[in-house]
Amino acid sequence: MLTGRCLPYGDGITLWPLRELLAQAGAPHGTREELEALLDGEADGARIAEWLAGALGLGGPGTLAAPEIFWATRRLLETLARRRPLVVILEDLHWAEPTFLDLAEAVAGQARQGLQMLCLARPELLERRPAWAAGVAATIRVELGPLPEDAADALLNVLAGTPPEARERLLEVAAGNPLFLEQLAASLGEQPWGEGELELPATIQALLAARLELLGPGERAVLWQAAVVGRDFTRDAVAELLPQEARGPLGRHLRALAAKGLIEASPSRPDAQGDFTFRHLLVQQAAYRTIPKLHRAELHERFAGVIEHQAGEDEIVGYHLEQAVRYRDELGPVDGEVRALARRAAGHLEAAGSRAHARGDVPAAVRLLQRAAALLPPDDPARARTQTGLGAVLMEAGRLDEADRTLEDAGRIARTAGDELLAARARVQRLLLGLQVDIGRAQREIGDALPELLGVFERDADEVGLCQSWRLRAFVRWTQASSAAAEDAWRQAAVHARRAEDERQLTEVLGWLASAALWGPTPAPEGIRRCERFLTEVGSHQTGEAVILNHLAGLYAMQGRAEEARQVLARGLAAFEELGATMTSSVTHPASFVAMLAGDMATAEAHLRRDYRRLEQMGEHNYLATTAAFLAQAVAAQGRHDEAERFIAVSRDAGAGEDFLAQVITQGLLARILAARGQLAEAEELSRAAVTLAARTDFLNQHGDALLELAGVLAEVGRTREARAAVDEALGLYERKGNLIASARARQQLERLPNP
Please, which residues have CB within 8 angstroms of residue 735's CB and are 6 or more apart in sequence? Predict the structure, then answer.
């Protein structure tokens, strides 16, 4: 039986319950070596251990997506369950971070025989996860109400020292609350009562406060230290916080507090000597409220120092320092000592937020970085660094307006402080954001800013900044439909990402290189070889693997390898579904491309509509322009021309006339619609414009498609020779790309055209 408790404080402590589960399973430090020993003989044991250690920041890969952590957790628990039946208890799940709730759901939904999960939570959990009300996998849901009268009476029978004459009054006041009943019974022996009506506190909070008032100074001091440590605490942690002279009677005070029903030996670790827990969270909270605020601040600061010395989690160190700052701020003016404490707290929270971002836990990263920024003065350069990281996370979460305001603030602080490097970091991140909001404006700003940014980053040997700058150059070339130039820039970005050992950026860049292999001039067989190399380099990173698999599916489909395309696409899309609605998982253009090559326009439309809805909700414009163009294509192929025109208009508005690929698609498509309505002159003019624009790009498939649209219009007006020439040219482009499916269709179209 393994127990993990979710903590009620410190947003962002996502994986604390997992750490407790692993410790009880036999990996007390959560290291890769300990976990490999637990998994001895298990297939994929080394990978499972590596991923779990990485999730805890203890020697595994620095970049892990949440689904990888979920998979590794489930496999380890299943391994333990095969050896003997296993019950995993997750307590106080209403306090869990969203990502940990996802983990619990993933494990419960796929758990095999021998593994059971018991989740305890307050009813408000179902407000956060309404789907759980209907059940997750094979669940049994039990709602606990007040104890029935007979059960309450039975409980009172086993509580020592309850006078018979007090029973009725105790049962009445407790009203079926077992904790209240236990504490009422315990309180009777602590103060005298007469023959009249028994005076009892009306609430459990009042009762606990009254009981704590009766404690001796030594017992109260021990309870105060324990309350600061948390619901679960150890004798050693309390001893560290007590003055040296008060440590001698510590054992006696702990036994006395246990006898009074305020604390107990930890039920999750009964064999561990010196591990305790408060009888209930309400007892801990009541004890904490009795601590004077100045003493609270001192205890939080001292305990943070203890954890720091033990190399404890940044999330917890940051929380205790944050509390110390809060109470000192409430008690008096902020001085240099408090500001130094705040910077120390912010540093730990920022480090925790960066790690959360690296493992793909975006909600936790946002909260941790927001808390770090809030601790710093408005003009502190350290705030600029934190705000820059926060802006990047908000961008990934799709909260683009917030990201823009945050990055603008970071740049302002850095410029005011005269820190060119910090200002450049905020600037480059804001330009990356601008490409998703206003493409035209971002392109102009990037052209002006890039030489200066590269100069600053080269001067300071900032490999991360150099990587981001080359990514900016690549994105500009990409929106101009110059894939080869974009590919060159991404290769340079990859060089800097490797030098910086920045796995996250490297993975993103490799995903874009896979995209260039699919959409650009690289022949499909060579594109397949490149994507297979990229898969080897991204290794266990599930997001990066999903992106590359999706593009590899498109390359397979072009080569007529339909079954291989289907398999790798299914793997890639399944990973995206596990990731949820992120910016990356909301762009599945290769999936619609594969469906279109197969002639399945309804499936292509379904993929694109999902992406369209998500991008629209995020307020994103760059990807939306191309998504709307592809969606118009899928809808028009099913004969819904009016609806297609609406998506063409959306694409034009979103792209602001700067997205060449979207323009090529929409102009050619609109020409087809006009031709179907008999507006042949306008259709020819528009289709020729699309071909001219496509010729300025190196997107061979889209250039070929534009030529086929032109051929269709020319055939309608009887200019067969010109139509055949356009199809011939398109066929040459498809063959250069290695698109065997499109080549075959072009030949069929050529055969249908009469010889002049």
Answer: 743
